[in-house]
């Protein structure tokens, strides 16, 4: 049995992956302009419909939501990749997340709540300089450029600062009611109420980190995909 924080390499080569997310018990990655559905057990993959230049992607329900380089937002079916364009223009989007059945995006320095059915949006509280954002239950967690970590209520955007300094964070994810971050090559398990953290094993150059059940999946800068045991 692999211990907590232990990891194993999956099949595939993913150097240059533009975005990654999870939905329907699968991993999804945009690589080389194509969308792939990836098995979390083996790393085997299948190409889905569409041609993509995705900057940010998040899964919600049985769909993927894809913020493109040109500012468009698309909803794609998780099983086929069939897509439709939603309302809005998002050319300045810096980070996205899903929480409490809704989408969230930081565009410029503003946090928006986004309707997953239509793309219609509303502006929420706060001014943000966010590098990474992840949703957990009914909260958002913002890792700011200066290293601060904030927890914001998804319904209102009201926020509080948590412990820790995260100026070297390269990737974040949530699973199992915990937050995880790769910061300066180390992987941390973060307690979502306080921000207290524990370092896990390994040395990482992670560009995309996603959570699924009792595992994290790390897309490394060299193209390797790892499954990390929690």
Describe this structure in words.
- With 230 residues, the protein is mostly beta strands.
- It has one domain: 6 Propeller (Neuraminidase), CATH 2.120.10.
- It contains no helices and 24 strands.
- It has a 4-stranded antiparallel β-sheet, with no helix packed on it. It has a 4-stranded antiparallel β-sheet with strand order 2-3-4-5, with no helix packed on it. A 4-stranded antiparallel β-sheet has the order 6-7-8-9, with no helix packed on it.
Write a concise synopsis of the structure shown.
The chain is mainly β.
Notable traits:
single chain, about 230 residues, mainly beta, four-stranded antiparallel sheet
Chart the SSEs and their pairings.
Layout: E1 7-10, E2 19-23, E3 26-31, E4 34-38, E5 45-47, E6 54-60, E7 63-68, E8 73-77, E9 83-85, E10 93-99, E11 102-107, E12 110-114, E13 121-127, E14 130-136, E15 139-144, E16 149-153, E17 159-161, E18 169-175, E19 178-183, E20 186-190, E21 197-199, E22 206-212, E23 215-220, E24 225-229
Antiparallel strand pairs: 1-24, 2-3, 3-4, 4-5, 6-7, 7-8, 8-9, 10-11, 11-12, 12-13, 14-15, 15-16, 16-17, 18-19, 19-20, 20-21, 22-23, 23-24
